[in-house]
Write a structure and sequence with these properties.
With 118 residues, this protein is an alpha+beta fold. Helices cover 42% and strands 12% of the residues. It has a four-stranded mixed β-sheet, sandwiched between helices. It starts with a strand and ends with a helix.
């Protein structure tokens, strides 16, 4: 199953998703339905790292006084499960691939994926 984890209030997520044919994708809005442990483990299986899934831009970091340098993999995992804003977004996941975040490399890989599907 193909799934997109996103925030409906995020203009960047909207922009990235708007140019894609998502008719056969399950859309998962994270604020209204946070990620589960099982779903996070699927993403981890693709990336091999909770840190790679962690948004270091979350406003919760400053609010909670989190020292990013002191975090271990298990800390990243726990935080992602605690609050939706700790998951880097958007996340596009297929049976074979996972595209995390909005950095240039991830978006280029995502575009190549959608180009190959059409």
């Amino acid at each position: 199953m193909k799934k997109v984890y996103y925030l409906k209030t995020c203009s960047t997520n909207k922009k990235i998703m708007s140019g894609k044919d998502l008719s056969d994708w399950m859309l998962r809005e994270l604020k209204s339905l946070p990620i589960t442990e099982e779903e996070l483990e699927v993403l981890y299986a693709h990336t091999g790292s909770y840190e790679a899934l962690f948004s270091k831009k979350s406003t919760q970091i400053k609010q909670r006084g989190i020292d990013l340098k002191s975090l271990k993999e298990e800390d990243f995992r726990r935080l992602i499960l605690e609050h939706y804003s700790f998951l880097k977004r958007p996340v596009f996941v297929t049976d074979r691939e996972c595209f995390v975040g909005n950095d240039k490399g991830a978006l280029e890989r995502l575009d190549r994926y959608f180009d190959s599907e059409s």
